[in-house]
Amino acid sequence: MLKNRLIPVVILNDNNVVQSVNFKHTNVIGNAITAVDFFNSWAVDEIIVLDVSRTKRKRDDFPKIVEGLSKRCFVPLSVGGWIENNEDINNLLRLGADKVIINTQGITNPDFIKTASKRFGRQCIVSSIDVKKNEKLEYEVFADRGRKATGLNPVDWAIECEKLGCGEIFLTSIDYEGMRNGYDIELLKEITGSVDIPVIAFGGVDKWEHLVAGIKEGNANAVSAANIFHYTEHSTFHAKKFLTDAGLDVRKPDFYEVPTPRNPKYEEIF
């Protein structure tokens, strides 16, 4: 049986780490190198880096950022943002990413998920599903960072993503993201109860109890968060310990024997 995983999420906008609330990117809170350095040293199981930059010039920087981060990252690194074809995937994997996260392009062209999983292996293809309630108060999948309604039912789309060959689902509740009320457990249960592949929960964590609820109540295979991990020193270590104390099957929250660079050379990446 797979162990439950703890995954910090780093959201990049114009090369800066930002806080995000309902997919609106507010405060700049740091840089990716520092974030990855600390997460890498404090008991996390994976790291997710998402690029939400809107300008093409900044988006073009992302592969170089991934290459720099991969050299400092000693846990699996998943990356997403503006991945449009197999060449993009091949480039990111070649530069050091372990998994790629596909969202809008997979919705626009579902065959993309199928061809990517066949070429690169389903173990490195993650389907990102962003969900919020529409005007009818029904769950609906949204694309383009929550800007575009798709008409897709989240459960149906999750099942289809599994059939197409993705290895995991990264599930975000847009309504809950950044609101500090915990995961949308109802949505999470619907998705985890409909697919056999792992589901990563994201959106809404404000305390460690929310992580426990995501696993115990929502049946998530992995729990992730962004904002909370940027404001509490060594927070991922304490989160992992809390999960362990709650009786969950997670990897021991011991320190890694990995030095944390104090003077990262930003010019090597940017």
What does this structure look like?
It is a single chain. Helices cover 32% and strands 24% of the residues. It is α/β, with parallel strands linked by helices. The chain has a single domain (5-246), classed as Aldolase class I (TIM Barrel), CATH 3.20.20. An eight-stranded parallel barrel has the order 1-4-5-6-7-10-11-12, surrounded by eight helices.
What portion of residues is helical?
25-40%
Number of strands: 12
Provide mean pLDDT, rounded. Answer: 87
Number of helices: 10
CATH-assigned fold name: TIM Barrel
Total domains: 1
CATH superfamily: Aldolase class I
The structure class reads alpha/beta
Radius of gyration, taken over Cα atoms and rounded to an integer in Å: 17 Å
- CATH class category: Alpha Beta
CATH structural architecture = Alpha-Beta Barrel
Could you say which overall geometry the principal axes of the C-alpha atoms support?
globular
How large is the share of residues in beta strands?
A: 15-25%
SSE map:
Blueprint: E1 5-13, E2 16-21, E3 24-30, H1 32-41, E4 47-51, H2 56-59, H3 62-70, E5 77-80, H4 86-94, E6 99-102, H5 104-108, H6 111-120, E7 125-133, E8 139-143, E9 148-149, H7 154-164, E10 168-173, H8 185-192, E11 199-202, H9 208-216, E12 222-225, H10 235-245
Parallel strand pairs: 1-4, 1-12, 4-5, 5-6, 6-7, 7-10, 10-11, 11-12
Antiparallel strand pairs: 1-2, 2-3, 7-8, 8-9
